[in-house]
Specification:
Number of strands: 22
Helix content: 25-40%
Structural class: alpha+beta
Radius of gyration: 26 Å
CATH architecture of one domain: 2-Layer Sandwich
Shape: globular
Strand content: 15-25%
CATH superfamily of one domain: DNA ligase/mRNA capping enzyme
Length: about 525
């Protein structure tokens, strides 16, 4: 556990990619297989569910620390991180042990789910008394289900490739899908590749997704339009549909197995040849056209799917790539070849819809056509370089997303709250309002988009201009105007404004505008259409 805590601290203390990879490589090379498997499991973002109520955990911590509840709360507000607050307040360890990471996970963490409160408290207090401050911090992150560290899965894959000598693409594939962090899995993960083949236990395992970079400058800088296969960019759930050994698997990009949630696509799988993997987008689809994504959310939020919702919101797989055919990995084949094979196997009159290829070779014509995106219920264009393979992750050069400009609204800052982690001492979480019958109505929350200097400036404003406080939330004088950008908008009876937006962020600080210049509810409703 000590080595894992040291790794966690090392990753948190640097922003340099090579230093992170070096720290990961050192740890994974030296750790026992049982520890390395669990560490890798957590580092790529898989973590146990929260097994304890925060209230109980806090009470046991302040009682062990010998401080009153109010002081614990004040310390938490100052530190801004629940796990770190506990680690700092607890008295020094009475007995420092070097028990391995897998022991703490398998013998102490996972059994908490079935234990009573007295047993839970005893185990936790005993663990705190045996750990130094660094170990406690990492342990608290694990038991609260909030373990996050500043490394991407691609960095972990780079380290694993360095440790094993196996190509990063193969390691990334082996990490996909469902598996348990056991020594046996660790050995299979690092085993030499048999001619680059998929791992032996990969019946339902998806391939790592190929991701696109956004077009940030002039699209002409990418080359000629004729160098690309051009498709519409659909707004759905990115997924891979797999048919192997008579079974169908539907995986999301977030590695969630979704087969049972979309029976239409499970039925589609039975129509596909054995050894087939299709990459595409799950869309709410009816009468040959996409429905608004809000309709998809009606299905996502349900545990059971009745005949009515299936009829009202049917789905289709908008297919745009073929990754496996006849059990053979096609990812290194040219894009056009993969597309031709996909077109040949697509079952007619099924839930599989081929993503249309846009037959234009002029950027100017495409720029005009792109303006129709919202009317077509798409987000712009996907630009895929002809002849390109299907790569792992986000690689600059082959796949680009040329999205339409986001919606934007000018809104007024009305509430602020302190952030978390490194931003715990700054007000960084904001609520914005728009005008509705002469009053500012909460419209959206946003957390990103400002520079560090702007955040410090807004923080100072909040401290000087708080007019009322509701717990951690500060109501401020309505003076600052910001342009908010967002990707989608819909009516919502659950929101006070009657409007919900997707992915809001601060596009810029409108210092040139007064609060009365901010947008009204009527203006925003007009965006819904």
């Amino acid at each position: 556990m000590r080595a894992f805590a040291q790794l966690y601290a090392a990753l948190d203390e640097t922003t340099k990619t090579n230093e992170k990879v070096a720290a990961l490589t050192r740890y994974l090379s030296a750790a026992p297989a049982a520890d390395a498997a669990w560490a890798m499991h957590f580092l790529i973002g898989r973590r146990p569910k929260r097994l304890l109520e925060s209230r109980k955990l806090a009470q046991w911590a302040w009682e062990e620390a010998g401080v009153p509840e109010w002081l614990f709360a004040e310390c938490g507000n100052a530190v801004g991180d629940f796990a770190e607050t506990i680690a700092l307040l607890l008295p020094p360890a009475a007995l420092s042990t070097s028990l391995p990471l897998h022991y703490w996970i398998e013998e102490r963490l996972l059994p908490l789910a079935a234990a009573g409160d007295e047993t839970r408290r005893g185990w936790l207090v005993e663990a705190w008394r045996e750990m130094d401050q660094g170990q406690r911090f990492a342990w608290n992150k694990l038991i609260t289900g909030e373990f996050r560290v500043g490394v991407s899965q691609s960095l972990v894959v780079r380290a694993l490739a360095a440790v094993s000598g196996v190509a990063a693409e193969i390691v990334a594939h082996r990490l996909m899908g469902q598996w348990q962090p056991t020594p046996e899995f660790w050995e299979r993960l690092l085993a030499p590749a048999a001619g680059g083949a998929a791992p032996e236990d990969a019946l339902g395992r998806p391939y790592p997704f190929c991701l696109a970079f956004p077009v940030e400058g002039k699209v002409e800088d990418l080359g000629g339009a004729g160098e690309f296969q051009i498709e519409w960019k659909w707004d759905g759930i990115r997924a891979q549909l797999i048919r192997r050994q008579g079974r169908t698997f539907l995986w999301s990009r977030g590695e969630e197995l979704m087969t049972d949630r979309f029976p239409e696509l499970a039925a589609l799988g039975a129509l596909l040849p054995e050894g087939t993997t299709i990459d595409g987008e799950v869309l709410p689809w009816k009468d040959g056209a996409p429905l608004p994504f809000a309709q998809m959310q009606r299905r996502i939020g349900r545990k059971t799917l009745g005949s009515r919702i299936l009829a009202e919101v049917p789905v289709a797989l908008m297919a745009f790539d073929l990754l496996e055919h006849g059990g053979a990995d096609l990812r290194q084949q040219p894009l056009e070849w993969r597309r031709a094979q996909l077109e040949a196997l697509a079952p007619p009159s099924s839930a599989l819809v081929l993503s249309p290829v846009v037959a234009e070779s002029s950027w100017e014509n495409l720029r005009h056509l792109r303006q129709e995106s919202r009317a077509r219920k798409v987000e712009g264009f996907m630009l895929k370089r002809r002849g390109s393979p299907y790569r792992v992750g986000r690689r600059r050069g082959d796949w680009w997303k040329w999205k339409i400009e986001p919606y934007s609204v000018d809104a007024v800052l009305i509430y602020a709250q302190a952030g978390s982690g490194r931003r715990a001492s700054l007000f960084t979480d904001y609520t914005f309002g728009i005008w509705d019958q002469g009053k500012l109505t909460p419209f959206a929350k946003a957390y990103s988009g400002l520079s560090d200097e702007e955040i410090r400036e807004v923080d100072a404003f909040v401290r000087r201009n708080t007019v009322e406080q509701f717990g951690p939330v500060h109501a401020v004088r309505p003076e600052l105007v910001f342009e908010l950008a967002f990707e989608g908008i819909q009516r919502s009876p659950r929101h006070r404004s009657g409007i919900a937006v997707r992915f809001p962020r601060m596009a810029r600080w409108r210092r040139d505008k007064k609060p009365e210049d901010a947008d009204t509810i009527e203006t925003v409703r007009a965006l819904v259409g």
